[in-house]
Amino acid sequence: METKVTLYISTHNKTGKKYFGKTTRFFTDKELNENYNGSGTLWKKHLEKYGNDVTVEIYMICSTNNLDEDYVEPIALKFSEDNNIVDDYTIWLNQRPENGLDGGSNGISGLSLEEYHGKEKSKEIKLKQSLYAKNRSEEHQQKLNELLKGRKLSETHRQNIGFGTKGLLKDKTHEEIYGKERSQILKKNLSNFRKDKTYEEIMGEEKAMETKKKKSETMKKLAENSNYINSIKNGMKTRSAQEKMRKKVTCPHCKKEGKMGPMSRWHFNNCKMKDKDEN
Question: pLDDT averaged over the chain?
């Protein structure tokens, strides 16, 4: 399947930012300026923030047939490299090199990547895109973070994220989500991270205060619930609980022996001889 593709440069008239892209729908400057501002995640966010005051110009009209002299891929990649469109955030808002072949969800001429390139080729393209995203330079990633900082998500976007997360995690165990080995590592890391740390050290002052307040309110509601109080009292009346409370223990500080109930209240960590014993 052969078609023509237009490589274009969009320039925002207010900010001077640029975007290098491709389209298979428009082939004149007039068509582009009347119908098309350009695509790309960062570019679209830029337009949302600063408006669609854009001038679009054709860089070159190329072929998608790799046997033609004007085959688009090497031409687009050379422009991407020569103009450093990925890493030069002072000018360009491209997140990856443009090759003139890959597209968004519509692929080329309204087709998906699988429909246009076939399964094997589309897998290769997606792998390259994934590897490129993972191997961004630290400077590139920092600039991305700064650019996206403070962005506001629409309510629809938030709901979609929520639905996606619920769909992924719903009725699934930690092991089912991450795998048994990975799950054990994550749980151990979390346990080690929290060990011997206060809420403030784990969450920060503000979040810790909110968490403590919520716990306090929950316990107050439980204390007001007569059924909860009665269940605690009934639990203390069980034989195992009674046996535990009647069991005789010895305080390590004053060596006094007694039943667990009163000893736990007046001895061990609360023993008057504790400080002298430690000295």
Answer: 77
pLDDT digits (tens, 9 = 90+) for 146-161: 766 766 767 776 666 6
Residues 6+ apart with CB under 8 A from 100: 5, 7, 22, 62, 64, 72, 73, 75, 76
Choose among 12, 38, 11, 34: nearest CA to 23.
38
How far is C-alpha 228 from the geometric centre of its chain's CA atoms?
39
Report the side by side order of strands in the sheet with 54-63.
18-23, 4-12, 54-63
Residue 42 exposed, middle or buried by CB count within 10 Å (0-12, 13-18, 19+): middle
pLDDT at 19: 94
Q: How confident is the model at residue 226 (pLDDT cuts 50, 70, 90)?
A: low
Q: How many CB atoms lie within 10 A of CB 27?
A: 14
Task: Give every CB contact of residue 210 below 8 A, 6+ residues apart in sequence.
Answer: none
State phi, psi for 208 to the nearest 5 degrees. -65, -40
Q: Scanning the structure block, which residue is given the tokens 């997360």?
A: 165
104 CB-near residues (< 8 Å, 6+ apart): 39
Query: What's the full length of the chain, in residues?
Result: 279
pLDDT of residue 45: 85
Helix or strand holding residue 161 (H, E):
helix 155-169
Q: Parse the chain into domains and list their residue ranges.
A: 4-148, 241-278
